[in-house]
Amino acid sequence: MKEQLLANPVFRMAADQFDRTADFLNLSVEIRKRCKWPMRLLTVSIPIKLDNGETEVFYGYRVQHQLSRGPVKGGLRFHPNVELGEVAALAMWMNWKCALMELPFGGGKGGVACDPRSMSQAELENLTRRYTSEMLPFIGPETDVMAPDMGTNEQTMSWMLDVYSTHAGHMVPGIVTGKPVKLMGSEGRTAATGHGVAFLAARALTKCKIKHETATAVIQGFGNVGYHAALTLERFGVKITGISDVTGAIFSVEGINIRKLAEHVEQTGGVRNYAGAAPIDPEVLLVQECDVLIPAALERVITEKNAAHLKCRVLAEAANGPTTTKADQIIEERGDIFLIPDILCNAGGVTCSYFEWVQNLQRFQWSEQEVLTKLDTKMAKAFDRVIAFSKYNKLPHRVAALALGIKEVADVKEQRGLFP
Known about the structure:
CATH superfamily of the largest domain: Leucine Dehydrogenase, chain A, domain 1
CATH class of the largest domain: Alpha Beta
InterPro entries: Aminoacid_DH-like_N_sf, Glu/Leu/Phe/Val/Trp_DH, Glu/Leu/Phe/Val/Trp_DH_C, Glu/Leu/Phe/Val/Trp_DH_dimer, Glu/Leu/Phe/Val_DH_AS, Glu_DH, NAD(P)-bd_dom_sf, NAD_bind_Glu_DH
GO molecular function: oxidoreductase activity
Largest sheet: 7 strands, mixed
Helix content: 40-55%
Family: Belongs to the Glu/Leu/Phe/Val dehydrogenases family.
CATH topology of the largest domain: Rossmann fold
Distance between the termini: 23 Å
Organism: Rubritalea spongiae
Keywords: Oxidoreductase
Number of helices: 15
């Protein structure tokens, strides 16, 4: 099983990051093994009847990396390229992220290999309900709490909530986060990840002595995270000059009106052919001159091929694992890019999910202002900890963030001991 996971390039990248950080922390071999490898790897087949009457079998996964600090927390994604190794890597990163943010969660991640864009609402509902029913023995508010991710949304979470609650015989809102507010979801949850990305990018610009009003940003990915990151950056006064999604990329030195672009995307399905900006090759967009570059889509988009050509001052990793190991080395050697690593940069989502989970346990709901104020406080504290730790130990920002998270988990493992 270890060999199967390591054969996946995303898991190999996460494992390399762990090994480098464990070397710095001087972790014992025993603790390394207990921290590195997932506790549970679940694979299920999901047979459903399609709209045309045919039966199709999909494969679903859930990885629970560690439960030493509390229930695992992590998203569920629907995407054609979902693999067990990728899911395991995402669960590992989520583990360090929750520890870094001082949240009482371990890391989890789930996925189903499917193309949600080609499936009807009825097919997606059947898929979600069957996946949830297969996971029932392994999930719960104190065991594993899922959330939306790529290809899933609050409707997906509503179906999961219904399946679990029906089997429990009563409403169990804490089984998922990212739900509609009417089902005891949290105000501010939809915007949380993108808001947090923009909030930290703005702090990084200040650290670099760049005025927000003169700064520019390029965003790769215009889903929920990219959209809300762009909106929040606009409120800070930053001009968005480039945006891309699966349909193409656009660029304008004059700036892009985000709300008008969102209307265009709603009508056409993508940013392509937006009249307010010129088309540009998506790969070329990544190396356009800007103050903030935000990769907010898939993993491994900043590589050894383009890392040396980046013209940003701040690299804010809104996606999980957008920068490969070799690209990391190039960026470190350059020394002119302020990196906000993924486990810190996109932690607004899981932090707000924690707030939702707490509200569910209390059967109480906070206002959006309360939620975002608490979120900004948590994000600012974690940002300052990482920067201070990096400076004191002369470490790259990524290693500093990972070290703080991994050390927290390692200490708990040590304190709890090994079951004989």
